[in-house]
Amino acid sequence: MPELPETETIARDLDRAVTGARIVGARVIRSDVLREVRPAVFVRRVKETSIERCWRRAKLVVLDLSSGDRIVVQPRFTGALLIDGGNLPESERRYSTVELTLDDGRRLHYRDIRRLGTVALMNPERFARYVAALGVEPLDPSFTREHLSVLLRGSRQAIKKVLMDQRAIAGVGNIYANEALWRAGIDPSRVANRVAPEEAGRLRDAIVDVLTESIALRGTSFRDYRDASGARGGFVDRLAVYGRAGDACPRCSARLIGTHAIDGRMTVLCARCQR
């Protein structure tokens, strides 16, 4: 699933490429991806509006329209926002679920092979309520060592589950929770309120560092993630633990362990150097 670095990459690409463009046509090809609005209403409300800004909140890509509405895309596992200047491969175009035609002739597709992602249209009041339930942005200055320490002290859950709870910290998913905990030397199954303040500080820095580094390399691609031009992310070659169960730990050379016991998702850790 695209996490913060992947959705940040998509949003930045779109902001450079389509901000200022006018939407002259819209098509809903697969209505099961729509949320908050019916297909005919979606088409009517977005047509003849201009895209004023593209940005990210948590794992969402947000397109601000001149009408005040916002198109809110959650790509999930196989979703992607792709700009089509006429050369988009048919293998990508065939999975288009929502298509926006821009005034310069380009099209913006929401492509989703498994159709597990969503496209919503929200007015300002609805959007404000929606994002109010999300947690702190980990790249925001307010995400301090002290903030994370207080957050962890209030939870009896495994620390990895806290990091992935979007109501607590927005944008961190399975890939980067694994990586940050390995960098900080903390066992993902450790109860959150047993993490000492100095460890929380180390973890906060690891989260910020791994997210920043991944954004610089345009995210992580295993199978389905693509940026707005259809290209793959390059951070996969920098992963220390995620997807590497059975390999040697890059820090101590012990064998990395893979388990689904903590949260039902694949957790990879080093039992020797994560405590």
In terms of DSSP E residues, the strand content is 15-25%
Overall, the morphology is globular
Write out the strand line-up for the largest beta sheet, numbering strands in chain order: 2-9-5-4-3
Number of helices: 8
| Helical content class | 25-40%
Give the topology string: H per helix, E per strand.
Answer: HEEHEEEEHEEEHHHHHEE
> Total number of β-strand segments?
11
Largest sheet: 5 strands, mixed
Low-pLDDT residue intervals, each spanning 5 or more residues: none
Layout of SSEs?
Blueprint: H1 4-18, E1 23-28, E2 34-35, H2 39-46, E3 51-57, E4 60-65, E5 70-74, E6 79-84, H3 90-93, E7 96-102, E8 107-112, E9 118-122, H4 124-132, H5 145-153, H6 159-164, H7 174-184, H8 197-216, E10 257-259, E11 267-269
Parallel strand pairs: 2-9
Antiparallel strand pairs: 1-7, 3-4, 4-5, 5-9, 6-8, 7-8, 10-11
Task: List the defining traits of the structure above.
alpha+beta, 4-stranded antiparallel sheet, globular, 275 residues, 11 strands, Helicase, Ruva Protein, domain 3, 5-stranded mixed sheet, 30% helix, 2 domains, N-terminal domain of MutM-like DNA repair proteins
In words, what does this structure look like?
- The protein is an alpha+beta fold and about 280 residues long.
- It folds into two domains: about 130 residues, Alpha-Beta Barrel (N-terminal domain of MutM-like DNA repair proteins), CATH 3.20.190; about 120 residues, Helicase, Ruva Protein, domain 3 (Orthogonal Bundle).
- The chain is built from eight helices and eleven strands.
- The chain has a five-stranded mixed β-sheet, with helices on both faces. The protein has a four-stranded antiparallel β-sheet with strand order 1-7-8-6, covered by helices on one side.
- A hairpin with a 4-residue loop joins strand 4 and strand 5.
- Helix 5 packs across helix 8.
